[in-house]
Periplasmic copper-binding protein NosD beta helix domain-containing protein (Streptomyces thermolineatus), 445 residues
Amino acid sequence: MAALAGTLTLVAGCGGDGGGGDGGDGGSGKGRRPAGAHVTIEVPADAPTISDAVSLARPGDLVLVAPGVYHESVRIDTARITLRGSSRDKVVVDGRLQQPNGVVVSAPGVAVENLTVRNNTQNGILVTGSAKAAAGLPGGSGGYDTGDEPVTFLKSFLVSHVTATRNGLYGIYAFSARNGVIEHSYASGSADSGIYVGQCKPCNIVVRDNVAELNAVGYEGTNAGGDMYVVGNRLVGNRVGLTTNSNHQEKLLPQKGSVVAGNLIAANQQTATPEQADGGWGIGAGIDGGSDNRFVRNRIAGNRNAGLVITATSDIPPVGNRIVDNTFTGNGVDVGWTFPTATRGRGNCLRGNDLRTTVPARLATTAACPLPAGASSPTGTWAAQTAPGGVPFTEVAAPAPQPQFPDAATAGATVVPPVPALPSTEGVRLPPASLLAANALVQTP
């Protein structure tokens, strides 16, 4: 944390719209400050809206928001500022279903902390280097296809202690972004995915210690790989818990090189959730055309269709995925590999898992790691339950109060590192079975 350098007293400009300028005079609406000083801008004490405060902020400043419901879409295009609510549950950015995004981050080094975003037609929080995505142009049909726009990455970000609920596409979305962390956050009621990372390679992104429930999908990583870590999350009570996949709609195909470790992935057949267009239901984790991913020491339990599914994305095979030291209990099928088209997987393997059922049978023996990279993956089918109808994302149950950012009102601005520290899988433990019944709106059957 950076030291708090002081509080900025702001005086609204008189007449007109406040003019422009570099912040040195009162007519710009910006108070004077010593050169290089970092300040705290308080909402509404110093600026009436979050957007007004963000427009006044300079690199290194903290925008601190008092409790209230703010009907605005906040755009952050100044590097290295911190946007923080003084109370996670009581500082609410509410889109009223009239705007695509709650908070859009398009500058590096920005931290968004300790607030709630809800009722946006697309995303609660969007972090992106894509100008088209930041403009809210794509996304209406359930994905981001930026056409011929070159891939431009936003480099370095932090989303922490954010509650994202009842958003029409994604709760927390990092798209065409790298070198970031999504942590200690909660996502529910997303009509697609609660937390989504898309179009990055290498990502250098860590998604850790989050809760995603009552979404169509808890976590989704599309064309996201290369130091992409999903660690220690609770993905319970969605329609699908987690997917890592390749998709032609986004750039940087194929998805390759994620680590999914130490997660609780359970009871993902909740009916009071938004229906996803693909119709997935009752699945803990899926690898769909992704390669060289490692699933390590996850607890995957009580998913009625299947615990973990490996399949292909149209013409993109899953290759070299390793499923190691996971515990599977109470799933319809613990591990199922299915390739309904001519595209087949290669080199996928299992080792050291606690499991009971696989399709095809005896995968733990016939596909044991290590396996030659070119070894064809067998395929099978099983009787999956029919997915029930869902509910509109606007009707998903409201979240319970979530843990607060420590010392939110007194801590200084957060310094976001250029590249986050990446976790070591050796230190990631299997989640205990006691977590199956703790801290969730839904319970494992």
Remarks:
- The helical segments are 50-56, 131-134, 363-366.
